[in-house]
Each structure stands twice: as structure tokens, then as C-alpha cells.
Design brief:
single chain; alpha/beta; TIM Barrel; eight-stranded parallel barrel; 10 helices
């Protein structure tokens, strides 16, 4: 098995400040969490930004640039950006960070799905800001839309920027979409897939779901590189399963706010350190950022726009 690439998803656009006092929201906090996570063993950072006053997910390009520059001054981690943004953002808002900053890697969702967060209301009774409750409630009636036209436009923008797509696969249909895009010349193999489990509207975070997606990808695509992320309490179990299979792992406060049952994570670095321990127990060595660049097939930090 090759060395395991650990990605840290720092803050995301799912959880709200009321759900954890430790959720990073300002550019300084987000960059600091990335740097500490790199020191703990993460080779790739998946970065969202938020309004520093309210914690609301944002597509502000100045904040993306500020975070990236702060990180790059302190460590060599691969800096990847979201193009999912937050539910309800326009295509232009979501793609701006690729067009402007030309990162080594960015997320690319090859299909549409219901992306439902509203059951979180059952556990969150008190909110910190006015936007939080309506945002969560609204996901009962929203589709995370990625049409074939959208995907074609995404692929063209990624190719122009020299940015590697991190293909966020929530179900088997998305693997068929990837195959279609490869055959059309819109994506170049070998592709890099992030299997995403645990979102209501996609597959649950179970080993069976992971096996289904992995086996389908092998059958349909043949060669590919892959990682997995899992929302909620099953995060570490899925990471152990994936790493035992030879895959890579994504963890962080975007995906889960607890280190274990009853114990909130106080930092992303703490979560990274735990998955590093699991990897080593499984006999997997941890990839450095430079090794991750070679494993995934990235252009290098000298070729970005920040």
C-alpha cells in the first residue's frame, strides 16, 4: 500500500457556530487550524471560509486569499478549496476561487442530490445567530444542483486553472457521470475520488456503502485514486475501513464535531492526530504534503495563484 494521504476539512458549511464553540470561523482561526493540522500529520487542507462576524458560510475571495497566504507562509500543506461553497450559492460564486486562485486541487461534485441537514434541528435547541436556524430548516426543500451543463463548465474551468478535481461522490450514479465525462474528454484519468458518506440524501456512513461505491468505481472506471469522508459519529470507523482497504482519509470539523462519544473535538489537529494513530496501528505510513502531491497528481504549490 502507498502512504496514506490525510486531508483535513477545517470548517465546512454544514455546522453552525451554535453547534460547537470550537468551530473556526475567522481567517486567522481557519489558517491556524490548518497549520496545526499539518503539524499533526495532514497533507491536504480542504478550505471553506465564513463571515468572521457571524460564522455564516461565505464565498468572499479576499478571505480565501487571506487564508491561503497565511497558511503558505507557515507550512507546505496542499491547499484545496471548496467549490460546493454553501447551499444556495450561484455557480459563479462557487467557481470563483478556482478561476481566481488556481489551486492545486478543489472539490467537484459530479451530480445533484438532496443535501439535507434539517434533522440537526432536533439536537440544536439554541442558536447563536439569526441565520443559523433558517439555514438548517431550509435544507428540507433544497437540491444541491450539479447538472451536466454545470459539470461541463466546471471541468473547463478546472482545466484552464490546472486544478485537479477532487470528485465528491455521494452515490453510484455520480460514478457513471464521471465515466461519461472521461469519455467526452472533460476529465482526464486517473481521477481522484472522494467518497462522501453520511449525508441525508446520499449513502449512509457504513462499510457496506463504502464497498458499494469502491466496487462500482473499480468496475466502471478501472484505475482511480481515492479517499473517503464520513459525516457524524461513524467517521473514525469508516476511516479505519478505508485505510485498511488501501484508501486515503479525510477528517475534520466539517464532517464531525466530536472526537468520540460525549467528547467534543477542541481542534482539527486533535482529530487528525487520532486518525494518524489509527493509520499507524494499521501499518500505514503517513504521506507528507510533497508525497501527497505525487500520489494524487498535483501541479505543485509554485503553480497556484496565491
Amino acid at each position: 500500500m502507498s502512504k496514506v494521504v490525510i486531508t483535513v476539512a477545517i470548517t465546512g458549511a454544514i455546522h453552525t457556530p451554535a453547534m460547537s464553540e470550537y468551530l473556526p470561523v475567522t481567517p486567522k482561526q481557519i489558517a491556524g487550524e490548518v497549520i496545526r493540522s499539518c503539524q499533526a500529520g495532514a497533507a491536504v487542507a480542504h478550505v471553506h471560509v465564513r463571515n468572521p462576524e457571524t460564522g455564516q458560510p461565505s464565498s468572499d475571495q479576499k478571505m480565501f486569499c487571506e487564508v491561503a497566504e497565511k497558511i503558505k507562509r507557515k507550512c507546505g500543506i496542499v491547499i484545496g478549496f471548496t467549490t460546493g461553497g454553501a447551499l444556495g450559492m450561484t455557480l459563479a460564486e462557487r467557481l470563483a476561487v478556482v478561476n481566481n486562485l488556481k489551486p492545486e486541487i478543489a472539490s467537484f461534485t459530479p451530480g445533484s442530490l438532496n443535501f439535507a441537514l434539517f434533522p440537526m434541528l432536533e439536537k440544536t435547541k439554541k442558536f447563536k445567530y439569526d441565520w443559523e436556524k433558517p439555514f438548517i430548516e431550509g435544507t428540507e426543500d433544497i437540491v444541491f444542483a450539479n447538472t451536466f451543463k454545470t459539470m461541463r463548465e466546471y471541468a473547463a474551468a478546472f482545466a484552464a486553472a490546472g486544478t485537479k478535481p477532487e470528485l465528491e461522490v455521494f452515490d453510484v450514479g455520480m460514478i457513471h457521470n464521471i465515466d461519461f465525462m472521461i469519455k467526452r474528454g472533460q476529465l482526464k484519468p486517473p481521477v481522484y475520488i472522494q467518497f462522501v458518506l453520511g449525508i441525508l440524501g446520499g449513502l449512509p456512513a457504513t462499510p457496506e456503502s463504502l464497498f458499494t461505491l469502491y466496487n462500482a468505481a473499480k468496475m466502471i472506471l478501472g484505475e482511480f485514486k481515492w479517499s473517503v469522508c464520513a459525516g457524524g459519529r461513524n467517521q473514525m470507523g469508516i476511516m479505519a475501513t478505508a485505510m485498511a482497504m488501501g484508501g486515503n482519509a479525510r477528517v475534520g470539523m466539517e464532517d464531525a464535531l466530536y472526537l468520540e462519544k460525549g467528547k467534543p473535538a477542541t481542534s482539527n489537529a486533535e482529530i487528525v492526530a487520532k486518525v494518524v494513530r489509527i493509520a499507524k496501528e494499521l501499518g500505514r505510513e503517513i504521506a507528507t504534503p510533497e508525497e501527497a502531491r505525487k500520489i494524487i497528481g498535483l501541479k505543485g504549490s509554485d503553480n497556484v495563484g496565491f
